[in-house]
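User: Is it possible to get a 3D structure for a protein together with its bound compound? The compound here is adenosine-5'-diphosphate. I've pasted both below.
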Amino acid sequence: MLTLGIDIGSTTSKCVLLENGTTILAKSLVKAGTGTDGPARALKQILEEAGVSREDIAFIMTTGYGRSTFEGTDGELSELSCHCKGVYFAAPDVRTIIDIGGQDAKVIQVSKTGKIQNFLMNDKCAAGTGRFLDVMAGILQMDVDDLGPKALQAEAPVKISSTCTVFAESEVISQLSKGVGLPDLIAGICNSVASRTAALAKRVGVQDAVYMSGGVAKNIGVRKALERELKTSIGFHEDAQYMGALGAAVAAYEKVSAET
Ligand code: ADP
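Assistant: Yes, that's possible. Here is the predicted structure of the complex:
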């Protein structure tokens, strides 16, 4: 049986195709999120790659910020549930998930059986999310993918004291004009996201094993800074950005299995 999860985020659309609730057959990612044709393109792409048609899929589950906007879905489920199911599928030893996406950050405490025990979310403020990193990359005229590796070269990371993205933007521009080195500045930017997320994590309570999900997991600068803040190692899965879509595909499988 084939099930499919679509995670319609603020910046990207991701799909995962699952066979019999156990095997990932294909994945797709389009850098366009809710309110665009990104979800439809991501779906077309994955169907082509897997060589299957919409009719072959028993259930499509959508999740993410734009989950209610997608026509042709069979059901929808919250991002919290889907990230929990996705990470638990990939790493059953997970007890804490730190999910940083394009416009929010969540920390989820997971039970041994993969259920949500507790969570906290920052969806009010761009600081501490991928948006903050995207804005800063824009100012530095860099690709967001290059921020992490650059941050690792820092010798004396700058402290970004503004807690608001707009003020932090001015602060970064001022540091740039003072001639601060790029690695030190970028490390400061990554540290700033990490310290906000660590504060959220400490309020939820951090238990090992800790895994990151969401696109910002790919930023090694943020990941390492979070490890320092939380004094623990953080598991990284190469499919971190697909965890919501994976969880949606798992939920779709559970739903169909329960009904038949
Ligand atoms: P959403 O679901 O809200 O669209 P994602 O979980 O897809 O968000 O994460 C998007 C964020 O991930 C971007 O804002 C960006 O900061 C970050 N990101 C995406 N790809 C990379 C990468 N290769 N390296 C570093 N950061 C990345």
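DSSP finds eight helices and ten strands in the chain. The mean pLDDT is 95.
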